Amino acid sequence: MKQLLTILSIALLAACQPKQQTTEETKPEETPMVHNTLTEQQQAEGWKLLFDGQTTSGWRNFKSDQIGAAWKIDDNALYFDNTVTDGGGDIITNEAYENFEFMLDWKIDSCGNSGIIFNVVEDEQYQYVWQTGPEMQVLDNDCHPDAKIIKHRAGDLYDLISCSTETVKPAGEWNQVRIVSNQGNYEFWLNGTNVVNFTMHTPEWDAMVAGSKFKDMPAFGKATKGHISLQDHGDKVWFRNIMIRTL
């Protein structure tokens, strides 16, 4: 009887021991992200691509029907090459937009500066996109001199409103942007965080513009719709996954 109890005790202990894995644990493979495409859900929600990853179709220089040679395709991104001495300039969407949700990814070269400008009015009386359109700043906050100026840092409504918190990634890393325009109310999102909110076309908006560097530009921030622009500020910058849906 004692021998039987001993055998049962050994068997019970063996059953309680964790099983040793004889093979390596296999993890499910992650599906690699395919850039510059829309998911079925995005298509159902009304999103449209503004960059196909292969061509510059849908974009052109401000007040031109062509796009400059400095804007290239590089590693599935729309890229501004500052080594090209001729053929730069700010580019705009072919279409103008009013109420919309807009998204893209950007990365900037070390010490670089660029911007995303909206409500751009294309007219012979304007020489530059920023004479009419407000800007979401694109910047290397660690190196560019503008980072020392309040309201000039990445994600800011340039020269008007600072980000509520800093979420920008270092130069050379991708950042995700979302801009919402809805009946004059705007939201800036950077890397998943709502960093700026404002309302245009109000007395408060006019007072804020009057206290900024745009005070002598009578058309700045007046338009309720316009083109979206990617800025040539003389530095290398990349954009991808550019998409929009109307609201």
How would you summarize the topology of this molecule?
Layout: H1 2-16, H2 40-44, E1 48-49, E2 59-61, E3 71-74, E4 77-80, E5 91-93, E6 100-108, E7 113-120, E8 135-139, E9 175-182, E10 185-190, E11 193-199, H3 203-210, E12 227-230, E13 237-246
Antiparallel strand pairs: 1-13, 2-5, 3-4, 4-13, 5-12, 6-9, 6-13, 7-8, 7-12, 9-10, 10-11
Please name the defining characteristics of this protein.
mainly beta, Jelly Rolls, 3 helices, 247 residues, 13 strands, disordered N terminus, 5-stranded antiparallel β-sheet, 8-stranded antiparallel β-sheet
Would you kindly provide a written description of the structure presented here, covering whatever features stand out?
- The protein has 247 residues and is mainly β.
- It has helices at residues 2-16, 40-44, 203-210, and strands at 48-49, 59-61, 71-74, 77-80, 91-93, 100-108, 113-120, 135-139, 175-182, 185-190, 193-199, 227-230, 237-246.
- It has one domain (39-246): Exo-inulinase, domain 1 (Jelly Rolls, Sandwich).
- The protein contains 3 helices and 13 strands, in the order ααβββββββββββαββ.
- The strands form 2 sheets. Strands 1, 3, 4, 6, 9, 10, 11 and 13 form an 8-stranded antiparallel beta sheet that branches.
- The N and C termini lie far apart (82 Å).
- Residues 1-14 and 18-24 have low confidence and may be disordered.
What is the CATH superfamily?
A: Exo-inulinase, domain 1
Percent of residues in beta strands? 25-35%
* Mean pLDDT across every amino acid position: 91
Q: Structurally, how many domains make up the residues?
A: 1
Largest sheet: 8 strands, antiparallel
